[in-house]
Design brief:
This protein has about 475 residues and is an alpha/beta fold. It contains 19 helices and 8 strands. The protein has an 8-stranded mixed sheet with strand order 3-2-1-4-5-6-7-8, sandwiched between helices. Helix 8 (about 180-205) packs across helix 12, helix 12 runs antiparallel to helix 18 (about 420-435) and helix 14 crosses helix 17. The chain is globular, with a radius of gyration of 25 Å. About 45% of the residues are buried.
């Protein structure tokens, strides 16, 4: 019996398309799905006549694989992944490999890698980004896990991944245990920020400038031809021109303003809090989705709570350009937060992350693919230990050029009563980061006053802590110092 190069479990949209992608690059694939009717439908439908073998049990799947066996899971994150690992383990041998290609939370991947290695098996947790089209035509793939597993899947993954202009694949080894899924999680967090900032640009044009979706389509088309060239701007251009078949109205005007989320923005926000990294743009973008979900409450509040009536008297064309500049400056700060978060995680979890390679992996295939990621790669190639993107000469210059427009757009939105939480948080991040002094001296005084939490002094070396008896009644006892 001729055996397959790789097996895949989970024939939903991403699974089917990845299988077809692998097969189109010369790899034979064995497939299984818990609902076995999907296997039959697939092999008799989209996979008919292709080098794809349908399997109707775990045993049959494993029997159809070359050694070392490689089984990829594309199932719902959480318990289903653990269940399939346990179903597979009795049929695998030393050196065989399981790959989790779903959106698993990185601590689960750290745990599963350790568990699989204790059983003498190899494990990869990989981020796969690009949606349905990316899976079929070339996604961005971010693998991490057991380093010895990488050579077994590298040819397959790099063959099926998206390619940038010079032919480099948007796939490279990220790091040990949960590194791949952490990087994918940050990708999704940045995606939340990108999408919210584009939404705020649209909202300002609609409500301050009085523009329709049709009016905005050429604006986003023009933006996609410059610095903001990206997948998300491109699809926004297309969305602006879409009409509803049923009513003939602009598609946007018939879509309810309640946004869904699958948890990766929340995970990124939690990781930022855990690691002490200010990633407020991701957090605000996540909260914006939460606010949108309160539709009934907002409708009730809109009848009671009032604000300014939007109006604009300036030059629309000039202000549209200022919105573009504000969007670009905010985007830079959002990505700066994401890379700062990855740097902190690398230190915490002992990962050797290559930030230039990560930027390259995001250049194609994934949802946040954008022209300016090439600039990020250049920044880290030039200075691998770069602490923050804002300290790179190119990004510093862009912020300098766009800062005035950025502030004007945010001010205009606020004065017209429009929420721009992503734009505002990005600017607050920039203004905080560029400040040599912040009001945290008062905060420390307050903490020491009510809880004897101590403080450092400007006239003493760092690391020495002091306590003041603010009331004259507190005595000299102070709390021990620690950071959460």
């Amino acid at each position: 019996m001729k055996k397959c190069d790789i097996g895949l479990i989970g024939l939903a949209v991403m699974g089917e398309n990845l299988v077809l992608n692998m097969e189109s690059h010369g790899y034979s694939v064995a497939v299984f799905n818990r609902t076995t009717s999907k296997v039959k439908d697939f092999v008799e439908g989209r996979a008919k006549g292709k080098n794809i073998t349908g399997c109707y049990s775990i045993e049959e799947l494993v029997q159809n694989l070359k050694t070392p066996r490689k089984v990829m899971l594309l199932v719902k994150a959480g318990k289903p992944v653990d269940e399939f690992i346990e179903l597979l383990l009795p049929h695998l041998e030393q050196g065989d490999l399981i790959i989790d290609g779903g959106n698993s939370h990185f601590p689960d991947t750290i745990r599963r890698t350790k568990y699989m290695e204790s059983k003498g098996k190899l494990y990869i947790g990989t981020g796969v980004s690009g949606g349905e089209e990316g899976a079929l035509r070339g996604p961005s793939i971010m693998p991490g896990g057991t380093p010895d597993a990488w050579p077994h899947v590298k040819p397959i993954f790099q063959a099926i991944a998206a390619k940038v202009a010079d032919g480099s694949p948007c796939c490279e080894w990220v790091g040990n245990d949960g590194a791949g899924h952490f990087v994918k999680m940050v990708h999704n967090g940045i995606e939340y920020g990108d999408m919210q900032m584009i939404c705020e640009s649209y909202w300002i044009m609609k409500n301050v400038l009085g523009m329709s979706s049709t009016d905005m389509q050429p604006v986003f088309a023009e933006w996609n031809g410059g610095e903001l060239d990206s997948y998300l701007i491109e699809i926004t251009r297309d969305i602006m021109g879409k009409k509803d078949d049923e009513t003939g109205k602009a598609m946007l005007d018939v879509i309810l303003d309640t946004a869904g989320q699958k948890g990766t923005g929340k995970w990124t926000s939690q990781a930022a809090l855990d690691l002490g990294i200010p990633a407020q743009t991701v957090v605000e973008a996540t909260f914006a989705r939460s606010m949108s979900a309160l539709k009934e409450e907002r409708l009730a509040a809109s009848k009671v709570l009032s604000g300014p009536i939007p109006s604009f008297k300036g030059d629309k064309k000039e202000f549209i350009e200022k919105i573009r500049r504000a969007l670009y400056a905010s985007k830079i700060c959002s990505y700066a937060q994401g890379f700062q978060l990855m740097r902190a995680a690398a230190a915490e979890f002992k990962w050797q992350l290559n930030y230039g390679n990560i930027a390259l992996m995001w250049r194609g295939g994934c949802i946040i693919r954008a022209q300016f990621l090439g600039r990020i790669k250049e920044a880290f190639d030039k200075k691998p230990d770069l602490q923050n993107l804002l300290m790179d000469s190119y990004f510093k210059e862009v912020i300098d050029q766009n800062q005035s427009a950025w502030r004007e757009v945010i001010s205009t939105a606020i004065l017209n009563g429009l929420p721009v939480s992503a734009f505002s948080s990005a600017l607050a991040y920039f203004d905080s980061y560029r400040s040599g002094v912040l009001p945290a001296n008062l905060l420390q005084a307050q903490r020491d006053y009510f809880g004897a939490h101590t403080y450092e002094r400007v006239d003493k070396p760092r690391g020495q802590f002091f306590h003041t008896n603010w009331t004259g009644r507190g005595g000299k006892t102070a709390s021990s110092t620690y950071s959460v």
